[in-house]
Design brief:
alpha+beta, three-stranded antiparallel sheet, single chain, 413 residues
């Protein structure tokens, strides 16, 4: 492990490397994709999110201290924080080192992190919002309409129940699919893993209860790519990341970005190597790094740009009514905190005690989080690699609300 850590030293920043936005690599999907795609130029008002963080060290001293203390307590070795408020970037800071080694690279404001399940909102849900708005994704027709094998491959006595599952239920995590299955243990390729997801048994009746489900979002990613006629990575790049100026956000980051990405795990059981610059999630890894539930990498500044899009009513890629539809808490099943793709605050909330009931956000297994409060016109992006070295650290659960509370309280002083 020490040798791996030392090999990270001497990394350069993006300014040193001169990295520009790159065309995505050959897709891991077998859909037809055009060899060249003209990508829209990012609107200047989003690509250049106005910086206003000259006083951040004083204004957010308590929030920054929470993050530094968490690093000292080994909640995570690396973190990046971005805060937007009323249309400006008011905090952008890197904390710690890539690992706990004394000679590991220092985290920079533009350090790139594995977003894990933040993929579900910045790529998959955003793609669903776009396709629904364009009339290409009806939310309440059977999932079997899009993925016939979801019903056809099931035992006959289960088919009628599976016909009740809809894309709306996948987004609201009420489909009856289980939270997680170790499909990578039985699947050796992307196609095999998708087939395994298609035949995963329901653990509850569709629409009867909420169970946050990676399996549901794996299938949703398949629906989206079919409806778009493009692979999920290419569609997200073309329709979301590039228009919003998210120049260093992508599935499967190229090898030259690796020195800017902290490792997430010393995997001694499955891949048997340091996981750095490749998706931590094993199911997404078997899918070639492109999946509906995980796979996107980004720096905090890019997620702040995405958050500002949501705070601006979806401009310039979405209509306000679409943002409202997807970020409003669902009415069924009763008691759910879920919106469509997004979560909303419910105590004890990772967003702390001050975010308004209109807020929406999401977490990621690697230690990522994004919370957006349209009432306060506030977004907080906190990215970490809390899974280093072995996924055991759980203190992030206490750290997140403390950080968010400290930020809101600083703004109210």
């Amino acid at each position: 492990m020490t040798g791996q850590t030392r090999s990270l030293n001497g990394c350069k920043t993006f300014l040193d490397l001169g990295i520009a936005a790159l065309i995505s690599p050959a897709s891991y999907y077998k859909l037809h994709s055009p060899p060249e795609v003209l990508l829209n130029q990012p609107p200047q008002q989003l690509a250049a999110l106005p910086p206003a963080f000259e006083l951040q060290d004083n204004q957010f001293a308590r929030a920054f201290a929470v993050v530094r203390d968490a690093i000292e307590q080994r909640a995570f070795p690396a973190a990046a924080l971005a805060v937007t408020h009323r249309g400006s970037l008011i905090a952008l800071r890197g904390f710690g080192r890539f690992t706990y080694a004394d000679d590991a690279p220092l985290v920079q404001p533009d350090t790139i992190f594995d977003l894990a399940s933040l993929t579900k909102v910045v790529a998959t849900t955003a793609a669903a919002m776009l396709l629904h708005e364009r009339g290409q994704l009806p939310l309440d027709i059977p999932l079997g309409h899009f993925l016939p094998d979801f019903v056809a491959r099931a035992p006959r006595h289960q088919q009628a129940t599976r016909e009740e599952v809809t894309p709306h239920m996948l987004l609201a995590h009420s489909s009856g699919l289980p939270a997680y299955e170790r499909l990578f243990e039985v699947a050796g390729s992307r196609d095999e893993l998708v087939r395994a997801a298609l035949t995963t048994r329901l653990v509850a009746g569709p629409g009867t209860r909420v169970e946050y489900s990676d399996i549901g979002f794996i299938l949703l990613g398949e629906v989206l790519s079919r409806q778009a006629g493009l692979t999920l990575d290419l569609f997200a790049r073309q329709e979301i990341f590039t228009p919003l100026g998210m120049a260093h956000t992508r599935f499967n980051p190229p090898a030259e970005w690796k020195p800017q990405i902290p490792p997430t795990e010393d995997d001694r059981t499955f891949r048997r190597r340091i996981i750095q610059g490749e998706v931590n999630d094993e199911n997404a890894f078997v899918m070639g790094g492109v999946a509906g539930h995980a796979g996107v990498f980004a720096p905090a500044i890019d997620i702040a740009r995405f958050a500002e899009c949501m705070l601006r009513g979806g401009a310039p890629i979405l209509k306000p009514e679409t943002v409202q539809l997807f970020t409003r808490r669902v009415e069924s099943p009763s008691g759910s905190s879920r919106a469509l793709g997004w979560d909303t605050p419910s105590p004890p909330a990772s967003s702390g005690t001050h975010f308004s009931p209109a807020s929406f956000g999401h977490l990621g297994f690697t230690g990522a989080s994004l919370w957006i409060d349209p009432t306060r016109q506030l977004s907080v992006t906190l990215l970490t690699n809390r899974t280093w070295p072995n996924r055991m650290a759980q203190a992030i659960r206490q750290v997140r609300p403390l950080v968010h509370d400290a930020i809101v309280e600083a703004l109210e002083e």
